[in-house]
Amino acid sequence: MNPPLFVRVLALAAVATLAGCQTFEVKKPTVEQTAEVRKGPEDRPQRSITGFSYSLRCMDTLLLDYGVRDVTMLTEEITDETKKLNAGTRDMLISSVSDMSRRSRAVRLVAFGKDTLNVVSFLATAQSQGAYQAIPLYDIKGSVSQFDENLIKNQKDGGLGIFPYLNLGVAKDAASSMLALDLSVLTTSDMGVLPGVTSRNSVVILKQGSGFDGDAAYRKFGINYSMNLARSEGQTQALRGLVELAAVELIGKLTKTPYWTCLGVSDPKANEETKLEMFDWYHSMAATRVELIAYFQNQLRRRGFYDGPIDGEFNPAVDEAISNYREALGLSRKALLDEEFFYAFLAADHTKIPRPAQPARYVPPTAVAGAPASPSAPAPAPQAAPLKLSVSAPKQQTRFARGESINLALQPSQDAHVYCYLQDEDSKVIRFFPNRFARDSRIAAAQPLNLPGAMRFQLSMNTKGVPETISCFATQQDVMASLPQQMVGTDFEPLPGASLQMIRAAFEKASGGKVAQENFHVQAK
């Protein structure tokens, strides 16, 4: 029996009324109640994002600017301790680090193992495995540590019935869940956790009705980041955002680069969290003084203000370089590595600071014996004698048995920066000095460098008995920052498409033609 006309009209009106009734609003109270549960200040800046891909590209540029290279890391399986997610968290991390190193090639990540015992076994035998000619310095370990479903849940329903013709009902529900990711960086030398190099972040996911309502909320440095979630991805997309955020944070903390600029913090001195971060960095490095001095020796040499050793010791040249850079930042010319200078350095846009005509050049004490040192004295002119380089093996050996270790001694005719490459049996070119174990390219004429020496890698004759060539280049100044990135690459990794002739041309251009080259030909017995 068809219902009367008035009943059908009433039914349509009832549907419209129930659908639009504000009484069934569940999303807003769920969001508000979840915000109360989460700790932290209530009033925070809001930013809408589609992901942290911009932050990863920003980090790539930042790593280039700060001269970060040869950061090698293992990553173990990132487990889901909650047993509620089915996602490849480690694969997400690998992708994130890859995006962060597109141009800088600063970080190389190796996937390995599921437990620490496996990693320890791997590290013990890495040098004897052909796939790994050098031991990675760091290991990333962690897990999805929290997934609280239905942290806050609201449901409202109502109905209207006219027996026997009409029986209508409507219901709305909304619930929030919290997902957390904890990662830490360990040193492979003793598998100890690096103090302060950790990432602990969480995201709130809002679910409404039968699908995700497109809301994920992240917090960092007092900023709320909101991201729309695709219905088909939901939790996995929210987890990817956590992983990308963790990658930015871990690499930034490890390399002491101001990663917060890539997360929207424009004034780190006005942000309480970044102020504490900079405070911790400064005092951890200043505790022994050597690390802090070496940090600025490296940075000022890269920026053309200093030409001298990176040894963690003060000298007249680095004092002059510090004074000049402080002045460029609008500070006093005191040669002080104080907190004010450190904070200003991390907050500066270094691309706007022009390089000086000449760096403050280090002069060995023996060269000025009996003369008073003057930090403000002009840098001496380069020596007139042409730069030469010697590369040799003990007892002038050039022939080696298959698998036999090769030890080399590098000695420039004057203090110089030296860079060594190997063209292997497959004609692939690999940079092996400077490297992750010895980042300073400068070699004093009075102190020859032994390779590999105490560094945790080995050089050996290939098992095929095919001749190989080692080419070393010496320049008066550090030219690494001026080389094309494809000629730098990652240490111990083949440079795609590179040849020794191309590398020679790159050094010629970067040094203005002032380069010395010495080849060492490795032959089988």
Automatic annotation (TrEMBL):
TM spans (from-to): none
UniProt superkingdom: Bacteria
Entry keyword annotation includes Signal: yes
Transcription regulation among keywords: no
Signal peptide as annotated in the record: 1-19
Residue ranges of every copy of the DUF4384 domain listed in the record: 400-477
Pfam families reported in the protein's UniProt record: DUF4384
Keyword annotations: Signal
The protein's name: DUF4384 domain-containing protein
Lineage: Bacteria, Pseudomonadati, Pseudomonadota, Betaproteobacteria, Burkholderiales
InterPro entries associated with the record: DUF4384 (IPR025493), PGBD-like_sf (IPR036365)
